[in-house]
Amino acid sequence: MLTDSHKPVREGGYFSLTHVADGQRLFSSIFYLLAPRPDHVVKQDTERVGQGEFAVYQTDLDSKGSTQKEVKWSPHSAVFHLNRSATMHLHHAGRAKYTLIEAYPAPGQAPRIKEIIVGANAEQGEVRQLLVEGGDQGWWKRSEVPLPEEGHLDQLDKTGCLISEVVIPAFDWKDHKFLRQADLQSLFGEDQDSIRRFQPFAAADAGSGNA
Q: In what residue span(s) does the DUF985 domain sit (predicted)?
């Protein structure tokens, strides 16, 4: 499924901008691919993402207790991000698990959380189309390739997911916001279990890295 037109994208995975409309009907369409890749390819593509603008970073402590900043990227697992525009996700092949966190819950309320599988098995509740709202009605979202069922880990290199995204009114990287550690704290407050659950998929706070 991966072609030369697919470039590693900062949130994780690969994408190719296939259409940008002009005139009265503004929208963009994107091919988006999640798929496991060999270690040497992951290293190469992580470096490519780090050379681009607005790469997503994580911070780690080395053996001496010093903070180290590293590019956070995976070919088959994305970090949480919020789009300004509504996005329709259209399934082509494979399966992907989407985790959605309500970006702006009502005051005093915990954010709603949804987990949805985009795939072809409707009998198991999988969907071929997924609309994710953006802006002040939006959801933080991330996608990942689900691991094969136990006993089928030899199929890992054959898994992946290819979708199209139709962005209305249009796609622009400036409209792409990444979830930071401080956002998690604001969303979940004293709910440390939820913070720990989602922390691996959030970007470093401003001042400790860029996003």
A: 78-178
